[in-house]
Design a protein that fits this description.
homotetramer; 134 residues; alpha+beta; seven-stranded antiparallel beta sheet; 7 strands
Amino acid sequence: MFIYYHQLRVLYGDTDQMGYVYYGNYGHYYEAARAEAIRSMGISYKQLEDSGVMMPITRMNVKYIQPARYDELLTIKTIIPRLPNRIIIFQYEVFNENKVLINEGETHLIFVDMKSKRIKSAPGLLLENLKPYF
Amino acid sequence: MFIYYHQLRVLYGDTDQMGYVYYGNYGHYYEAARAEAIRSMGISYKQLEDSGVMMPITRMNVKYIQPARYDELLTIKTIIPRLPNRIIIFQYEVFNENKVLINEGETHLIFVDMKSKRIKSAPGLLLENLKPYF
Amino acid sequence: MFIYYHQLRVLYGDTDQMGYVYYGNYGHYYEAARAEAIRSMGISYKQLEDSGVMMPITRMNVKYIQPARYDELLTIKTIIPRLPNRIIIFQYEVFNENKVLINEGETHLIFVDMKSKRIKSAPGLLLENLKPYF
Amino acid sequence: MFIYYHQLRVLYGDTDQMGYVYYGNYGHYYEAARAEAIRSMGISYKQLEDSGVMMPITRMNVKYIQPARYDELLTIKTIIPRLPNRIIIFQYEVFNENKVLINEGETHLIFVDMKSKRIKSAPGLLLENLKPYF
C-alpha cells in the first residue's frame, strides 16, 4: 500500500457563505494531494503526460463528515490501495488541525494514449515506482 | 418523482489543459442545476436559508462518462427520486448537445437548523412544494 | 460602440465566508459576458479559436464598488469601445437586481496565431462582424 | 517596505484548454500570497477578522506578461509599498521557475468594522507588526 501525506491551507476563496469550504472544491484538494503523492515517488504527473499518457478521472466519491474552515491547515492522506492495471484508485482522508477526519474520498483514473485516444494499461514508469510499496 | 432540466454553457475557465471540463467543476454545475430545480418549484434555496435552514452536502458521487468541451451547451437533468425526510437526494444526468449522456452524479443534503446547528427534518415549505410530484 | 447585456445568477460556490461574491471570481463572470457578447455578433470565440487564433488576456482591471450576494441575478453590460486592431478592449459594468452599479472592469486581449505563436491583428471574421457598430 | 516570497504549484484545475493558467485564477494566487505575507508578520488575516475587521478588496489590476504552465512552481513576491491608513496596497510579482517575471498585480483593500459596516483605519494590531519594515 502506498501512503502519502500532503498539507494545504484553506483559502478565503475556497469558503462559501456558510463559512465552510465549498463542497465542490474538494476535487481540487484531492488533485493537489494526488500530484504531490505521485511526485513523492520520484516521478510527476506532468512527466507521465509528457510521455504521451493522459489520466482522465472516471469516478469521484466524496463523503463530507465535518466542515473545513478558513485558514485551517488540512492534512490529506493519499492512499493507493493496490497496484494499478487499467485503473488506478486514489483514496483520500482529510484531517483538520485537531487530527479529526473531516472528509473522505476516492477517485478512479484510467490511462489513455494521447495520440490514439485509446485506453491502455498503467505505464511502466508508474508501475516501477509503485512496486516497492506493494 | 421530480424532474427539472437546466442548461448551461461551458466556460473557458471550466476547461483544463486536456481540453475538457475539469473533473472538479461538476460540483458547481450540479449546484447551478439544483438551485434552478428548486426555484422551478416556486421557492428558492435562498428562501430556505433565510427561514433558518442550512442544507450542507454529506455525499457526492460522480461518474465521468465522456468529456464536456469548451462552449458546449450542456443540459442537466435533475431528479429528486423520493420525498425527503432527513436527507434529500438529488441525481444529475448531464447531456451534451448531441444528447449523449456524458456525466452522472448524486448529492445527498441534510437539513440543519442554523441557530442550534442540529440536524432536522425537511422543512414544511419544501415538502409542500414537492408533494404534488410524488 | 458595441454593447451587450448578459445576465447570470450568483452561485453558492461563488460566495465566500464574508457572504459576498469572492473578488477572484469576477474574471469568470467577465468571461461569460464576453463570450455571449461575441456570440451575439453571430460568431463565437470558439469559431475564432478553430480558425487558428488564440486571444490571451494581457490586462485586467477591476473596481469593486458594492458586494454581490448569493442568488442575485446580475446584469453585465459588456462594451467594446472601439474597433480592435492589435488589441481588443472589453469593458464591463455589473449591475445588481436593484440596477445599482456594483462592479466595473476592463480586459485587454491580443490576437495570437496558434501555429506561429506570433501576435497578429484582429482577424477579418471579427472585424466584419464588429464594423456595423462603429 | 515589506516584502515576502511565497511559492505555489500550478494545479491542473488552474489551467485552461490553452494550456496556461486561466487569467481568472490569479486573484486566488494573490490571496494565497497575501495571506502568507501577513502570517509572516506574526499575525494572520483570520486573527484580524476575529477581532471584528473585514478587509474587502476595492481594486485589482493584473498585467499578464507570460503564461504560467501546469506543474510550475511559481514564486510570488508580495510587496506592501507603504504603511496603510484607510487603504492597504499589496503588489505582486509572479516569477516562474526560470526566474522570469510572468505576471504583475496590485490589490487595494479597505478596513471595515464588521458590526457597524463602517470603513475604518488600519487596525493597531496590523500597524504595530508593519511599522518595523518602514
